[in-house]
Fold each of these.
Amino acid sequence: MSHADAERTVTTAAPTDAPTAVTPEQEVVRICAELIRIDSSNYGDGSGPGERQAAEYVMEQLDEVGLEGTLLESEPGRATVVVRLEGEDSSRPGLAVHGHLDVVPADAADWQVDPFAAEERDGCIWGRGAVDMKDMDAMILANIRHFARTGTRPARDTTFVFFADEEAGGTYGSHWLVDHHPQWFEGVTEAISEVGGYSVTVPTPEGQRRAYLLQTAEKGIAWLRLRAHGRAGHGSVPNDENAIVRLAAAIGRIAAHEWPREYIASVRELLDTLGTLTGLSSTDSDLEPLLATLGGAQGFVRGTLRDTANVTMLESGYKHNVIPQTATAAVDCRFLPGHEDALMATIRELAGEHLEVEVVHRDVAIESPFSGDLVESMKQALLREDPEAVVLPYCLSGGTDNKALSRLGISGYGFAPLRLPADLDFAPMFHGIDERVPTSSLRFGARVLGDFLRSC
Ligand SMILES: [Zn+2]
């Protein structure tokens, strides 16, 4: 079918010759591999290659099927692509479907393969971004192309975005777009993106069962700098106001602090449903066996049982025989929804009187309900492809671009559907080495996402 025909049929249901068009599952693997081969490493300090080349690739893929994307640069090389498709029912609120084009850096020496070669091996595409998140970018792009080729439409007006800079907090991507071009999200009330919708295989009394973790909440972020002040002096002279000692004591107190456990709604529901499925306890005093059933995904879940504070960088001193006047530490704090003020107060108290606490970067915690039409659409799209599975809510210990969209009142979910083999330890591959995604999972995801977009 020619493009001209496609344009004339946009208001109708799928044309009868639609099956002859290339399907999303036929090209999702190619697109994922081509995106991985474009190095878009984000070091967080502006020294990386930027997302421009990946964004241009997305623009070409859109252009090839007659769609006009919009490429926006926040800074030279820091590019985001937006494209809007009209839905079957434009009177309904709009949906945003977004991915990010940047990846965290990869040290090739640690990998079994070249992280930017997108090698296909053992049924998987290997490379930086295979999991986070050029896999989902490819599923989104393949589905947009299919709508254009077949002249069909998503159920609702949909804004598709391929963001820059997610891996450094979205300053040059999602937050920038929300600040400078919020009109792209006019009428949009809900969003879907990454780190959710993938399966884990859990043991039940009746055998193994696949459970899809739908991400409905994200912890908030507070990156803090602790600065201890003291008295400078000669290294041979007793000094009870040593900045390094003060900092070390504060770090010790923070490390020893037991953050109270609290179960937010999504975490409670995840644990209770998982308990029912597996027959294991979901009570506070006996949670370990249940958490263990989640395999590598338990790290994400453990991070959502309480607020956390991890010391990640230290800096002080310049000569062996000089006591420095200041010492600083970086602390990565993550708080549950509603806990930001309490966390900050606790850290200030633990830091003590000789330390300044500076907020270097913060972002909100978010929580969306695990109910309603959109959630039902995500569940049904998964269950149509995998009828024996269950879908569970979970909270992400990290953050995504949904935080930025939440500033526009948009409820965000993590839904990058992947049916994964039971023995693939998937969750630790986010920012890990030997990142890889099964090609069958990519094709599954492309189908489920397309089904969801047509039915949501
Ligand atoms: Zn990501």
Amino acid sequence: MDLSTKYLGMALPHPLVAGASPLSDDLDGVKRLEDAGAAAIVLRSLFEEQITREQLAEYLNLDYPGESFAEATSYFPSPNAFALGPVQYLEHLRRAKEAVGIPVLASLNGATPGGWIEYARLMAQAGADALELNLYRIATDPETTSAEIERQAIETVREVKESVTIPVAVKLSPFYAAFANVARELDRAGADGLVLFNRFYQPDIDPEELAATRTLHLSDSSELRLRLHWMAILSGRVRPSLAVTGGVHTAVDVVKATMAGAHVTQMVSALLLHGPDHLRTVLNDLAAWLQEHEWPSLAEMRGNMSLLKVPDPDAYERANYMLMLQGWRA
Ligand SMILES: Cc1cc2nc3c(=O)[nH]c(=O)nc-3n(C[C@H](O)[C@H](O)[C@H](O)COP(=O)(O)O)c2cc1C
């Protein structure tokens, strides 16, 4: 069965990619994902705050030894809060590349333009086959406009693209007023891939303790719909390759994502829940599904349910909202 695909210019045997997660934090994990059949691996993100901390440490060690360093860095998360520091990250990336034959993507999570461009270069030098820029930003300042947020994201992508020659994918939030336009602008800025979507992790409130609490819920297949919707809207209308992340648990999820237009489907929660070998199960199920439904290849179905091709384009438009609500009978 031909499950082959192309993502960020890389020819892959199939679309199942291990998304950014702790599963690839050590070499054993990286090898397990390759053994389970992953077509590529995205390493966990290096956060801008980690980079800034390192740069600040260098600077302050030169000019202000001692107490002032502790004071100046007190507002950063503790280094222990991160699985891999910047230097370790680059070393891990280098070793992961040596350990496996599949593409390894590095991930950078930045909040401001400029500061992390250097690390994009270092990741490329360390052997990353591509970069995934994880643009996770919460605009809590009421004075900050959406135009400013979008401009910064687009500028970041343009700057990173100017700094490296490897492909650059952008992992995005769905929370833009005009997401299709943001995708088009990122395309114009040179993004080679769009990864839909980042999951946002909202804190809960503990009303007894008066505390904001953090619990990470893993996804299930119901989260796929938001991705399918936007994937179908973008498919065939932007140049970058398209990846789904969020809610991919089964072979049918992969089929749906491909029909919406995905070139690859990333899995994390499913692999954390069932172990890396679950990827092999989904891969086998995918081949079986195509055979059973007489699809000669995955490429044949890619985007056949996109907004451009679907027989009922209303499904992705405002009309769908009205039809859904009006169709409910008590
Ligand atoms: C424990 C954990 C750690 C993660 N770390 C990262 C990360 O460092 N960078 C990133 O871009 N996404 C990270 N993610 C998000 C995943 O890559 C993925 O986008 C998200 O979990 C949705 O996919 P899923 O439904 O397959 O889990 C993490 C997810 C989990 C559960």
